[in-house]
């Protein structure tokens, strides 16, 4: 029975790790591109921050893929807008152990919600000619 508990815990840990993406995990997958950036840019990417002048690859490493990509025209010209949302998806994991009459039972469950909250745009990154020209954040 102890082996079952260890195996069950290991699977749960792997599922949790596989479902999350962080700047560090994106950096590891794109090490060559990351290493080519200047040290100050690397520091911001590691912290999950973007700055004016960043290119799309820099933003993807820092923040991941946007929830939406839009094109718009402004007085300044054509702009590309990447919209990032507050995380509204959830992941939960539970384990239950019970017993009685000389028997022990194990049970577990995994729940995942990926429904986006369309009213929760947290950040917009605006590009003009392939460079970040503005970062708009929404305070809740």
Layout of helices and strands, plus pairs?
Elements: H1 2-18, H2 23-29, H3 31-36, H4 39-46, H5 56-63, E1 68-74, E2 77-85, E3 90-100, E4 103-113, E5 121-128, E6 131-137
Antiparallel strand pairs: 1-2, 2-5, 3-4, 5-6
Helix pairs in contact: 2-5, 4-5
Work out the helix count: 5
Number of domains: 1
Strand content: 35-45%
Care to count the β-strands?
A: 6
Mean pLDDT across all amino acids:
80
From the spread of the alpha carbons, the general shape counts as elongated
Write out the strand line-up for the largest beta sheet, numbering strands in chain order. 1-2-5-6
Terminal residue distance = 47 Å
Percent of residues in helices comes to 25-40%
> Over the alpha carbons, how many angstroms does the gyration radius reach?
21 Å
Main sheet characteristics: 4 strands, antiparallel
* Poorly predicted runs of 5 or more residues: 10-19
Helix and strand sequence: HHHHHEEEEEE
Q: Give me the secondary-structure category.
A: alpha+beta
